[in-house]
């Protein structure tokens, strides 16, 4: 079982929302010692074989340019590009959200922190589920889809070292998803991250160390996003323009920091709580029942005017197996199953002009690759235009490209064969 590979475990706070820190902090070491050379084998289904650490030279060569894996990120003293970018942010951050306090909590649990929920001055999702700041210059969060009867398909906490069965299953179904990747996992398991890109999945950011973002300093929050973005760029060659906060923990201060990095915040409308299995008396049957609650809402017509963004995890073999098992039920209860970029008609989800993605109409018609987009055109995360009407509209790409001189580690990555199999 995958759990046997975990190095440690701690108790999850009952107040935690989203994925639990006890799973995250216990990751195996990936690119740590010993460095064993091996090829990525998409047919391998044995957990131990998949999760054997390996040395990927393009990443090994740049490890010193990134924070320590799984430690809360800070700007490296030698990283002048990050320092300059953060300095630019600081020029306006204090004026914009200087009254927003750093919160005190752990693993998404803020039960002991006093906050004015009624006034909700910070639009703090963790306490009030606020997704639309009163300050209209701060973009609202994405938490549901403009396309009715649609399941927003995605996974948090990857790339998981033993994800072959899930990825093979999706490849067999010609199904793409939105992957919210943790920077430390990308550096630990770069070949797995490469596979996600090569399989056509949309890549987004889930921070460097899975810390509760509102508990971090401005620099810490910036570094968590910045270095994850740089890691994904270095490994896969693309620069994401979307992110999801661990535990959904976001307020106006964090929104402004993410917005400065051209990142759109994506939350969720429904939660399977798949990550909780095995904790707090949550069983496999509990998770199945949580899926059923979403299906019941669909049967009741609750998604007739909008689509659901459902929280699922690539965190372990149990969560991935649940998705494989429940996929036929998703098909039976929702008209469309699409990655978030397609549901939002984000045809240019990355900063790179040559990277495009199919819009909603294209994806639901069977197209799995983006089409040509004229320079400066395409609908991007952060655009105010969503839904089918946005598919043919254009918006300027205002991405702030990093001045980092890191060489991309993305290279030729050939996946031979597809094997659909059950997870161990």
Explain what the structure shows.
There is one protein chain. With 424 residues, the chain is of the alpha/beta class. Helices cover 30% and strands 8% of the residues. Strands 1, 2, 8, 9 and 10 form a five-stranded mixed sheet that branches. Strands 3-4-5 form a three-stranded parallel sheet. A two-stranded parallel ribbon has the order 6-7. Helix 6 links the parallel strand 3 and strand 4 (178-181). Helix 4 (80-97) crosses helix 10 (252-260) and helix 9 (218-236) runs parallel beside helix 10 (252-260). The longest helix has 19 residues, at 218-236. It starts with 20 loop residues before the first helix and ends in a 60-residue tail after the last helix. Residues 359-404 are annotated as: Disordered.
Helix-strand layout with pairing:
Blueprint: H1 21-24, H2 47-50, H3 57-60, H4 80-97, H5 125-128, E1 144-145, E2 150-152, E3 154-158, H6 164-172, E4 178-181, H7 183-188, H8 190-198, E5 202-205, H9 218-236, E6 242-243, H10 252-260, E7 264-265, E8 270-271, H11 284-299, E9 307-311, H12 317-333, E10 336-338, H13 340-343, H14 360-364
């Amino acid at each position: 079982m995958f759990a046997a590979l975990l190095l440690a475990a701690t108790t999850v706070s009952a107040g935690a929302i989203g994925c639990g820190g006890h799973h995250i902090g216990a990751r195996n070491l990936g690119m740590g010692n010993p460095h064993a050379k091996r090829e990525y084998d998409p047919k391998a289904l044995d957990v131990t074989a998949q999760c054997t650490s390996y040395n990927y030279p393009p990443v090994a060569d740049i490890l010193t340019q990134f924070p320590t894996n799984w430690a809360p990120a800070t700007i490296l003293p030698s990283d002048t590009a990050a320092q300059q970018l953060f300095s630019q942010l600081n020029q306006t951050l204090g004026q914009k959200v200087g009254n927003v306090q750093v919160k005190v909590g752990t693993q998404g649990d803020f039960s002991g922190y006093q906050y004015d929920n009624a006034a909700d001055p910070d639009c703090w999702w963790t306490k009030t589920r606020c997704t639309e700041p009163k300050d209209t210059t701060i973009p609202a969060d994405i938490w549901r889809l403009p396309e009715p009867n649609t399941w927003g398909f995605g996974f948090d906490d990857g790339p998981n070292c033993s994800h072959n069965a899930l990825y093979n299953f999706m490849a067999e179904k010609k199904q793409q998803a939105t992957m919210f990747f943790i920077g430390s996992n990308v550096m630990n398991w770069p070949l797995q991250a490469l596979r996600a890109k090569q399989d056509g999945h949309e890549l987004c950011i889930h921070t460097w160390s899975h810390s509760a973002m509102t508990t971090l300093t401005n620099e810490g929050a910036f570094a968590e996003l910045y270095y994850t973005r740089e890691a994904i760029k270095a490994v896969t060659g693309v620069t994401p323009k979307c992110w999801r906060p661990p535990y959904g923990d976001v307020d106006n201060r964090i929104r402004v920091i993410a917005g400065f990095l051209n990142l759109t915040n994506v939350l969720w409308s429904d939660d399977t709580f798949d990550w909780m299995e095995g904790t707090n008396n949550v069983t496999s049957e509990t998770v199945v029942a949580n899926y059923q609650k979403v299906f019941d809402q669909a049967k009741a017509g609750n998604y007739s005017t909008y689509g659901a963004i459902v929280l699922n995890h690539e965190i372990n073999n149990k969560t991935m197996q649940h998705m494989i098992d429940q996929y036929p039920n998703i098909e039976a209860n929702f008209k469309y199953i699409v990655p978030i970029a397609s549901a939002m008609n984000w045809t240019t989800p990355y900063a790179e002009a040559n990277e495009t993605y199919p819009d909603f109409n294209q994806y639901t018609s069977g197209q799995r690759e983006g089409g040509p987009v004229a320079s400066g055109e395409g609908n991007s995360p952060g655009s105010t235009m969503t839904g089918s009407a946005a598919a043919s509209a254009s918006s300027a790409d205002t991405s702030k490209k990093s001045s980092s001189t890191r060489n991309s580690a993305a290279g030729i990555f050939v996946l031979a064969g597809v094997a659909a199999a059950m997870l161990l």
